[in-house]
Design a protein that fits this description.
Helix content is 29%, strand content 27%. The chain is an alpha/beta fold.
Length: 431
């Protein structure tokens, strides 16, 4: 069983391109190249072979997905609890993640019915998963409302009479299950909701108004790829069977919904929360570790010296400079890596290293993005997600904005540089 390694941190500023590249390196990500995933569900998973589409996305992103699945049509979590194939696959163990998908309607039913027919069986399966694979993460597959609501059950439960009502009930109940069992969420339903609002020409449903079309399966696969691997889907070149335009629109939706909110979809997972501060006196840096949930630590100081296992070390550097200090916070299953830059003997760690308290709005943006909090004029460069500069110029505090109208949808990085040498890079999304 592999430990999962995830990281978040600051950027290297040695060169402009390295600064942009570091945003990708230090964003929250799953470091393992190979993941073992078990899919337990029904036809929503089986149609178009969703696990294989996720595997193809992983391969295109330089990773690998090893998977097995049991997805009989209409199967409920209650039925999976006595399904010999499901139980055997779970008991096999060695899984990094196990995906649970309930029958398409059940989580949207009344509170009492869901309490009787859904929650106990989700709990049972989650318990079996962790008995066989102690470090596995349970991932709930958040499905979607029927295209026109659940007409069959509408008379007895009005909240699901419409797509919006049914979809909202599914969102709520899957969130409750994730919270109850410290699980992750794959927000396929939320990705589809955004696409229905912004890209209504993309048909997400099969003819029955329930099962996914090819585009619907791709939206779900991108949700899983993003949450499991922690990577921005707009950087993945795989388009499945879709046109480049439709694939790009679905990737952009998954980027905004899933990638930009990774912490939110993983928020019930009790992994360590890595955090530290540093103070510098001369060439000596003292680190205060404020991590929670870890049982061990490993520090590297960016100067090639041996790692330290101390909780809050002090380190003396041989020379002044800018060093990247990394803390690994470790528990029994997860290693969370946090990196920050420390300025030794130049700009003290407590000194002002950024342009200011800058914000971007709206973000995501359709046309014009405003830079809020700019205190003085500064130069800017705007980079796309492959590090190419697509705009540059100078911003002034009054009416500081950029127009992205002519740019394609996707992720961008705005670098601000003040006359005093401070730099700051902010991420934004173009719809």
């Amino acid at each position: 069983m592999n430990k999962r390694n995830r990281s978040t941190g600051s950027m290297s500023k040695k060169t402009l391109l390295l600064a942009v590249a570091a945003l990708f390196i230090t964003s929250l990500s799953v470091a393992a190249d190979t993941l073992r995933v078990l899919f337990i569900g029904n036809s929503y998973t089986a149609v178009n072979n969703l696990p294989q589409v996720v595997a193809d996305l992983a391969a295109a992103g330089g990773d690998r997905l090893i998977y097995q699945s049991n997805t009989p049509g209409g199967q409920t979590l209650q039925q999976h609890c006595s399904n010999s194939t499901s139980l055997s696959l779970i008991a096999q163990g060695g899984w990094d993640y196990v995906v649970l998908q309930e029958q398409s309607q059940r989580p949207s039913f009344s509170d009492g019915q869901v309490a009787d027919e859904v929650y106990p069986y989700a709990k049972r399966l989650d318990s079996l998963i962790h008995r066989a694979s102690p470090c596995a993460k349970t991932v709930f597959y958040m499905t979607w409302g029927y295209k026109n609501g659940d007409a069959g059950n509408c008379p007895v439960w009005p909240p699901i009479c419409t797509y919006s009502g049914m979809d909202s009930m599914l969102y709520l109940r899957y969130s409750i299950m994730a919270e109850n069992y410290n699980a992750w969420l794959s927000p396929a339903g939320r990705v589809r909701r955004r696409l229905r609002a912004l890209n209504p020409s993309i048909e997400l449903y099969d003819a029955d108004g329930s099962h996914p079309s090819a585009a619907g399966t791709f939206a779900a696969a991108l949700s899983f790829y993003t949450v499991l691997y922690g990577k921005d889907p707009v950087t993945n070149a795989y388009n499945y069977s879709l046109s480049a335009g439709d694939a790009a629109a679905i990737k952009a939706a998954a980027s905004v919904v899933a990638f930009d909110s990774l912490d939110y979809w993983r928020r019930f997972d009790p992994v360590p929360k890595a955090a530290f501060t540093a103070t510098v006196s001369g060439t000596t840096a003292s680190f205060s570790n404020t991590t929670t949930g870890a049982t061990a630590y490993s520090w590297t100081f960016g100067d090639g010296s041996p790692a330290s296992a101390s909780a809050s070390p002090t380190h003396t550097y041989a020379a002044t400079g800018i060093y990247e200090v990394c803390l690994k916070a470790i528990d029994g299953c997860d290693t969370i890596k946090l990196c920050k830059q420390v300025n030794v003997g130049t700009v003290g760690i407590g000194g002002r290293q950024t342009v200011g308290n800058i914000g971007l709005y709206p973000n995501p943006v359709e046309d014009r993005v405003y830079v809020k909090g700019l205190e003085a004029a500064c130069d800017f460069r705007l980079y796309n997600n492959i590090g190419a500069c697509v705009q540059s110029g100078r911003l002034k505090p009054v009416q500081a904005f950029l127009s992205l109208k002519a740019l394609p949808a996707g992720a961008y990085y705005l670098e601000l540089a003040s006359s005093g040498g401070q730099r700051q890079v902010l991420r934004l999304s173009k719809k």
